[in-house]
Amino acid sequence: MRIPEQIQRLAIVTAVIIGGVLLVRFVLIPRSLISDDLHRASTVQRELAKPIKFAGSTACQDCHEDVSSRVRKGYHKNLSCEGCHGPEARHAENPMEVKPFAPRDRKFCPLCHGYDPSRPTGFPQINPTAHNPIKPCITCHNPHDPVPLTAPQECSACHAQIQRTKAVSSHALLQCTTCHSVPAQHKKTPRSAWPSKPDTRAFCGGCHGKEATPKDAPKIDMSTHGGRFLCWQCHYPHLPEGRG
Amino acid sequence: MNKRQFLKGLILFFPAGGLTGVLASPVRGKETSGADKGTEASGAKTTQPQSTGAYDPERHNYGMGIEIDKCIGCSRCVEACKAENNVPQEPFFFRTWIERYVITKDREVTVESINVKSRGTRELAQDDREILRSFFVPKLCNQCAHPPCVQVCPVGATFSTKDGVVLVDANRCIGCRYCVQACPYAARYLHPETKTADKCTFCYHRVVKGLLPACVEVCPTQARVFGDLKSKASRLVRLMRMNKIHVLKPSLNTDPKVYYAQLDGEVR
Fold first, then answer.
1. Which of 3.30.420.40, 3.40.50.2300, 3.30.300.30, 3.30.70.20 is the CATH number of B148-198?
2. Which candidate in A32, A179, B182, B195 could, as Cys together with B148 as Cys, close a disulfide (CB 3.0–4.6 Å)?
3. DSSP output for B71-82
4. Which chain B residues contact residue A31 at CB under 8 A?
């Protein structure tokens, strides 16, 4: 049987169209445009090719053994070298030509150690305007092994937040040592020796009990007030009127 | 020319025109797709070492832990991030930033990014005594396991890698900002030079080589912890074992991989 001529022509046209589509789809369009895997792989490669600017503390230790071993023993033991010295990968690659940055400015240390009420209590903070003005921090403190130059005379040197709270409370006139006994060691290495805290109801009762001597302290009956709870579970001793 | 000849000619003419067009276009197509071919080839070349050994993305799933109680708001992380990743220095482009939450005694919550202001002007408007509690919250891309930004991208330029990091293909990105709008954590911005979306990559170029992300590297109080969720012993897994953990906006089911310890209920 003979295929009609118009069918043959139609078949040619169809074949050309199909062939053209296949050619464009598989030859002309680059595979990276079609395949997600390929374009993602090339993105990852581009990401990995980005230069590293921070060399990492282990890189510093290789050469600066002395400094890093000293830092590891002091309060700054968990700090990364490049946290203060800035990104130094270029220095690590080429130690002779690229010299690292060292902050010697008085503005730098208060970035961490300036007083800020949002900072966690206990973090060592100073008031940068009142604390030895004009002198750069490094004239007294070695940043690689920071210690207070002399044992601070006032508790508020470290416990500023508590001091400010207490100053506006009715306990303002009480000394810290009225309630806490502070070992001398606590002033040099605060975390190796802790001050004591009152641990009995009777301690507060010494002023606030019915028979206690201070006349102006509010009096309560220790046998009925508060039941089995300790005083500081309801009253914050540094700001007794603050709760409730 | 009669009608029959004209129709015959027409039938031959159109396929012939199509063919010449197709024959002409490979030349043009080769020229324009040359760059794409190049990246494709380099992609194929460099994916080989991945499969042969050193780094297998299937075996990692990265996450970050943040201990709110340790953050002192010193912004070392923000500056390190800008230095490492070429984030513009202007104080409104951030891959990571720190927010200060202040909750006053009348339960009013104030949130501000401490990085937007210039450094050194961190004065609180409130009196210390009016503060009930106050703390810092570092924020960054949460590298969600179900990222809304990937869903909305019209050109497929952003995607999750097998090791759990959301990346942006800057060559594909058309800068339409859908992802900037879609991100519930406001972690993306449009880079002013490339005009493409940019975001935290967990310093992907560092972590793959075994280094820490720049922000974790410089954090002086270890408030930021980086680790592998698939590893049995990583600092992140230990943090998650030892603390009560919360994520931001859990109701959105984005399944974030930045885990906050000691997070306050007021934080959004």
1. 3.30.70.20
2. B182
3. -----HHHHHHH
4. 40
Query: Phi then psi for A146, rounded to 5 degrees?
Result: -75, 130
Q: A168 at the B interface (CB within 8 A)?
A: yes
| ipTM confidence score | 0.71
Q: What is the pLDDT of residues B78-92, one digit of tens each?
A: 999 999 999 999 888
Tracing tokens 């507060």 back to the chain, one arrives at A204
Residue ranges of alpha helices (H) inside chain B are 3-32, 34-52, 76-85, 148-152, 178-182, 204-207, 214-218, 235-242
Mark out the alpha helices in A52-196 (DSSP H runs).
57-63, 65-71, 81-85, 89-93, 110-113, 160-167, 176-179, 184-188
- Partnered with residue A61 across adjacent β-strands are none
Tens of pLDDT, residues A33-78: 778 888 899 899 999 999 999 998 888 988 999 999 999 888 898 8
Report chain B residues whose CB lies below 8 A from the CB of A9.
11
**Rounded Cα–Cα distance for residues A186 and B208 (Å):** 44
Whether B80 and A54 lie within 8 Å, measured CB to CB: yes
Are A164 and B128 within 8 A, CB to CB?
yes
- Cβ burial of B128 (10 Å; 0-12, 13-18, 19+) is middle
Residue range B203-234, pLDDT digits in tens? 999 999 999 999 999 999 999 999 999 988 88
* This model's pTM is above 0.80: no
Task: Report residue B23's pLDDT band, with 50, 70 and 90 as the boundaries.
Answer: low
- The terminus-to-terminus CA distance of chain B in angstroms comes to 81
Q: What are the structural domain ranges in chain A?
A: 1-29, 106-114+124-146, 200-244
Maximal C-alpha separation, chain B: 103
